[in-house]
Structure formats: C-alpha cells, structure tokens
Design goal:
single chain; 419 residues; alpha/beta; 5-stranded mixed β-sheet; signal; TAT_signal; cell membrane; membrane
C-alpha cells in the first residue's frame, strides 16, 4: 500500500464516521513532546488490522478522534475478514499491528500449528465482554446452562452437537472449553468444535450449522435480537475481568520502530480513557462502531452490553458487575505476565503444548511492558502496577496468580494431555 493509497483510505474512514455524526476529530491538539526530535516515531503511518467486534473500539476511536495525530502518527485501520487473515497479514508485514486474540498471539510465538513467529503484545485492549450463545432449539429442550447441556449430551452419540469458536488458540476457544469442562463436558470428545469468523456466527446458527458458539459482541446480542439463540454465559462469569484482545505485532517491528510502538500505544491508551470516561462517550462509541466502515450493524446491538446492561434472551436482565472495560485508570491495558501465562496453562491442559514451557520467560519476551510504561508516561496520569502478576478467581473457584503455572495446568481433572 503506497502513501497515497494510505491517505485515501484514511480519508474514506473519516468521511464514513462524519456521516454517522458525533465522530469529529479532536481540535487543537498539540503534538506530544514524545513526537519530536530523537524521540519522533520512525514511521508516520501505521497500518492496524481489526475484526468487526465491539472490542476494536480503542483503535477506531484513536484514529477518528485524532489521538494518533497527537503522538505524531496516522493510524490506518484495516477491516479483516477473519482471525486467520489477521494472523497472516501480521506475519507477512502487510499489517504493522492488529487488534488480535490474546491466545492467537501466544500460539504464533510458540509455533502451535505453524512456524514459530517472534511476536509482541504491546497492551491489552479490553477486559470482559464476550459470551457463549446457545441455540433457540436447545432452549426449547430446556437447556439453560452447562449442567443441563451435559445431561442432554450424555444421551447422544459423541459429536452430535456442534459448537463454534473463532480460532484454535484464541480466547473464545479457551472460554468455551473452560465453561464446558466445568460441567464435565469434554470439548474434544463429547461435542464437535469448528472455527467460524465472528461476523459469520449468527448466520451459521440460523441455518442450523451449530448448537452454540463463543464470540465477542455484538454477535451474541444479535443472536438474541434475531431470536435464534440466548446467552448461556458471559466470559466474565468464567473469569471476572479477564484479558481479551491485545494490540499485537511482530517483535522485529517493535525493535525497528520503538518510538512508533510507543506512539501507537499512547494513542490507543488515550482513546481507551476517552471511551470509559462517561456513559455518553460509550454511547457515542457504539454509534460510531455501528457504521458501515466498522461493524456495519445497528447501534442497539452494541450499546446495551457496552454499558453493562444485559438481557440473556431467556427472561433474565441484569446490570453486570464486570462489563467490557477499556481503561480503568490504565489497569485494563497493562500487559500482566500472569495473563499471558494463563493461556499457556490452557494450551498445556488441552494438549496444544506437549511439554511444559518456560512460562515466565515466554510472557516476559512477548508482553512488552517497557513499551507500555513509556506510553503511560507520555499519556500521563497512569500509575503502573507494582507487580507483574495479578490474582484472579475463576468460575470453578480456582485461584490463578501465576506463581506455579505448571501445577495449575495439571490440577484440572478434565484435560487432554498427550493429544
């Protein structure tokens, strides 16, 4: 893509957002001191891929609200059709960075089902905000949760029911597997699993290709609106305040463009803070994302769950205590080592890694806390966490603190070792 094409692409995105209304660029922004002299970004145009999901919001807002310009770069978002496309374009260099599944990035680093690629996680883009949807057909049979699903599956031949996730090492696969296993359902023998790109989930459920799926919003809310499914579980009920998408790139790109990487993270951090600053900003973000250039859907499918207002489509409504979050004083974005290590424990649990990896070493080389800290300093008002590990309690009562990852991986009674 040459410079003229990049500029034309960006102009089209800005025109599309202007047509929505309320997406005007921030005016009067002064260049950051980090964008001058020897600290200036090595690149002025940064191509960033995204999948049409609610959690791509920080990248879109960074581009449309002018936070990128503040740090001396022009962020050019590129809508991609699938996570496989994001993977391929990241590896080839067609994209400089991307909105990407946490587990996908780690899978690339480890060479799971592909040649190992040295990758970098610059920041976490969001926590929470995914869900597991079950079909209306299952609902009609009285299936409401994982235990009732277990009873139904127990009376059928293995693989009778098909469930979809979005990528073999991705977050949605891990949430789906964890949820199923909590009811003693083996995701590799009791059911059949398939990979489906997020925008194709609802259509595939409508025509009967699957009984359930795990995906990001707005596709769970859309299934409810279309009366083809209901929310059986949110991802935050599996792990409250779990890591989800990250801003990923190649390690080589960071080494060649450290100032550009800092500028990119700074811009996205500012955008994340802006989104979470008020309900009005969240509503405006939903309106923007609904536009044709982004998710090409109705704002009503995004707004409720972005605000934490949930309706599961089966008669239950609630204000979620752990809705999708992008900033929370900068804590959401911090690339905790323990977050990355958790995905490694699940790769071990499900046989994607045959031998114990060096958990801490992998997390330390992938999660670029150095870049995040520089960006947080540039943005200002963000206090970095004192520790690289955090403690969380998951749905089954297990406590994850990153301190003995191999023991944690081996503690599960339902696993797939040696697969």
């Amino acid at each position: 893509m040459d410079d003229r094409t990049v500029l034309l692409t960006r102009r089209r995105f800005l025109q599309a957002s202007a047509a929505i209304g309320g997406a005007s660029l921030i005016s009067g922004l002064m260049p950051s001191v980090w964008a001058a002299g020897s600290d200036a970004p090595e690149m002025t145009t940064v191509r960033v891929g995204f999948i049409p999901l609610t959690d791509c919001a920080p990248l879109v807002i960074a581009a449309l609200k002018g936070f990128d310009k503040k740090y001396g770069i022009t962020l050019v978002p590129s809508k991609e059709a699938s996570w496989a496309a994001v993977r391929d374009k990241l590896v080839s260099g067609e994209l400089d960075a991307a909105h990407v599944l946490y587990g996908l990035l780690y899978g690339l680093e480890l060479g799971i089902a592909s040649k190992p690629q040295a990758m970098a996680n610059l920041m976490t883009l969001n926590q929470n905000g995914q869900a597991i949807t079950l079909s209306a057909a299952l609902q009609e049979q009285g299936i409401a949760d994982a235990p009732s699903l277990k009873k139904l599956i127990a009376g059928q031949a293995p693989g009778t029911y098909t469930f979809a996730h979005t990528f073999p090492t991705g977050t949605h696969a891990m949430w789906l597997y964890y949820w199923l296993a909590s009811a003693d359902i083996n995701p590799f023998t009791d059911i059949r699993t398939v990979v489906v790109p997020p925008p194709q989930m609802v259509m595939n459920m409508r025509i009967g290709n699957m009984s359930g799926f795990c995906v990001g919003e707005p596709w769970n809310a859309r299934a409810i609106n279309d009366r083809i499914g209901f929310t059986a579980a949110t991802s935050q009920t599996i792990w409250p305040d779990h890591p989800e998408k990250v801003l990923g790139t190649r390690r080589e790109w960071v080494e060649k463009h450290p100032h550009t990487a800092r500028a990119l993270v700074s811009a996205v951090l500012e955008a994340s803070r802006w989104i979470d600053a008020s309900e009005a900003n969240k509503r405006e973000t939903a309106q923007i994302l609904a536009g044709r250039a982004w998710l090409n859907t109705k704002a009503q499918y995004l707004t409720g769950r972005m605000l934490g207002e949930y309706d599961n489509g089966a008669g239950h409504r609630w204000q979620d205590a752990h809705p999708i979050q992008f900033f929370r004083d900068g804590e959401v974005s911090f690339p905790w080592h323990s977050d990355g290590m958790w995905f490694l424990t699940q790769f071990r649990r499900w046989g994607l890694l045959k031998q114990a990896p060096d958990y801490e070493d992998i997390a330390a080389r992938v999660n670029r806390i150095d870049i995040w800290r520089d960006a947080a300093t540039a943005v200002g008002g963000i206090t970095p966490p004192a520790q690289l590990l955090r403690t969380s309690t998951l749905m089954d009562g297990t406590v994850w603190d990153g301190r003995d990852p191999e023991a944690y991986a081996n503690r599960f009674t339902l696993h797939r070792k040696g697969a």
